[in-house]
Amino acid sequence: MSDKIQVSARVRRRTESEIAAQSPIVVSVPDDFCSTDEPYVSVNASPNTSFGSGSDGSGKVFTLDQVYGANADQELIYKNIARPLLRDFMAGMNVTILAYGSTGSGKTYTMLGDLVGEHAGIVPRVLQELFQVAKDDICVKLSCVELYKEELHDLVNDELELNSKKPKLRLLGDGSRDGRGTMIQNLYELDVVDAKSGFEMLQKCLGKRKMGTTKLNSRSSRSHTIFTITLHKTVMSSSGQEVVRSSKMNLVDLAGSEDIIKSGATDASAKEAGSINQSLLTLGKVISALSEGKEPRHIPYRESKLTRLLQGSIGGRTKTALIATISPAKSNLMETMSTLTYASKAKNIKNIPQSTADSELVLKRTKIRELSAEISRLNRDLLATKGKDNSIRISLQNYEDFERKIAELRTELKEKDTQITGLHAKLQGRDKDIAELKLQIEQTLSENSKSRSDLAAKDAELHKTTKEFMHLKDKYSSQKERVSNVTGTGISSIIRDVNEVINNLNDLTQVSSNVKEIPTVVQTHLCLFKKTLEGKLNDVSSKVEKETSAFEQVLANSMDFSTLHNVCQNLDFSSHVAGVNKRNEQLTDYINSTHLSEDSAMYKAFEKKFKARMAETYEALKEQYMQQMHLAFDGFVKSSKDANAEAVRESATEFMQEEKTTLSKEYQAYIHQNSQTLQSISTKTKSVATDLKSFKEVATKDVQGAFGRLQKETKQVIDNALADITNTSRSQADSIEKAATQKAHIVSDMIDKNYHGISRDLNHTEKNLKIFSQSLSELQRSPAQLKRPATSPASRSPSRSPMRSPSRSPMRQLNGQSMIPDIKRRRTEMSPLRNDLHKSRIPQL
């Protein structure tokens, strides 16, 4: 009874790349799940946006047995296609399920998918259900073969690939009458007792498959894979005897046909694609030839190993189901049309499936006919050999056949002898290679052990060197912090002293403003005195007014302090103070940027020299170590360590000496600049003192002369007039004199106080500068502490005597002469309150 191949089509969803490329849908099906009543697939000329049955009727329509849309899941495919064939397989019939389609259309997902879960494919679901419904009287064997570039590979037992002595897989006929059955010689079959062991074998085989990445699919099968399940089941025959019935189930995952331009295949992948396309082209020829149904016809099975493997499944005695997987996108339109064309042709192929019992009966009958023909041939040969002289005679045709077979056997024997000789030579070469490899392994192990010990010693030495480096780094950090503290303290003290000098100068400015206010106060008291005299002395008002105006004019001319105010205004110390501040800031920036910062030139230069010296020392150690590795490693490391430490100390000492010289020059320039500034301040102070002294002398003389003349002129006029108001006038004049005298005392005290404050601040500044100079001298000597005391004299750098601090402060002496005058003595000489030469000569009224 003939049975056609069951053909189904499965349409997947569009992939992300197809959606991104905006490739429209050109395939429509009646139902997005499953369609068996109207199993057609329409490829439309005008694209649609969904699967559905919304076709407008244009395009080409392919009619199949079953059609599954994008919403059909793995369970539905297995239930409708694989489960009925599994039942036939367990009933003793040979069955085949194969997936056919272009690359990336979903063949591997349909056949394999995941091992468990809702995405499990047909193969794991078949294994699971087989062991669920099977009984104890069965034996299940699994095999898996891969066809890659027309070469067969056993994925279950890969020892054949690694061992050249094992025979390769070969395709042979199974001895069936029509010659369409094939078997694989030397293929290993694994006994499986449960689904778990079957899954383990399946996972192992999947890991060995040839996979690749193309533009169309990130994980594309590059070979054809056939999973075969062989079932041996014990049944009772019609005669009441137990017989073993065998059946096979082939699950085929074909590699997809692909366009080399679209897939981007090059070099090796292009050859793989060419081999895949060639085998699928031959499969298409076989399907086309079988679908024509004409007798007699030539079926090109032998043009490819794939068609020979599928010879029993396509047009043979196997019940077959073909699943055509297609893409709905317009970008794969040509591949979809080709797949559906071959699928519709395969639908017309007729197989003659037979159960195992029927096939055994047919085989027995065929064997009887073959044996009968052989008996007839032998009888003819026996009759031909009978002669009168009892000699043996055979027919000429048989004789020629025997001669030809003998020649072939001799040729084959020579070839076998040659192969044996070559194999012996290869075996000897392999033995020699193995011996050499063993020797190399022993040498490598010995060298590895020695290298490990050397590496451990080197690690210890590196750890020790790192520890010493960290110690030096900590010591350098402490020295750096000390320099920062000393310089910061000295500079802040100098800035504080300068600020005090500026404050004192501001006080001196206030004194000048107070001196300027004296004429105003005197004028106010004179106006009050004038008003009192006008009220009580009406009779002498004209004379008193005249003399008073003269007195006011003389007093105004005599008490003009504008000259003193101008001198005080011209006494500008801001430029000198700004110069001192600027120089202090320059010195601070230089010390911070050059010596104290990790980004400074000193730190980077020290680090650079240290790394360079370490690199040179390491290279020298490495060369000496390779040359004298077996002689004296321990002593060499010790001496190299001392030399390395001494080299580092020499480099640090040399660099610190250079930086000390540079710092000393900067310090001397700073001292010289401050000395010039202070000398200028001293000169200005002397000039101001001289001007004040001369001004006071002139002002005193003018005031004394004016008051003398005023006394003589007014004594005669107001002798009698002032008799009655003598007490009142005398008391007011005393108050005016007292106020003027107090104001003069206040001015003198403020001048004295400010001169005393300036002297004290200058002395304090001199003291701080001296302390700062001593601190810098100590810092100049401190870098030498980095050197280790236990070093050889020959390797030590030449010592340099540290710069001694001067016996006297540079602020006090320059070329043997004092830069700051004796302010106290000068102040005593200039004070009108403490010197009799400058005693006030203002007459007492």
From TrEMBL:
Binding-site residues for ATP, renumbered to this chain: G101, S102, T103, G104, S105, G106, K107, T108
Q: Name the UniProt key words of this record, in alphabetical order.
A: ATP-binding, Coiled coil, Cytoplasm, Cytoskeleton, Microtubule, Motor protein, Nucleotide-binding
Asked if Transmembrane helix is a keyword of the record, the answer is no
SMART domains given in the database record: KISc
Provide the Kinesin motor domain boundaries.
Answer: 4-349
PANTHER family, alphabetized: KINESIN FAMILY MEMBER 11, KINESIN-LIKE PROTEIN KIF11
Under what name is this protein listed?
Answer: Kinesin-like protein
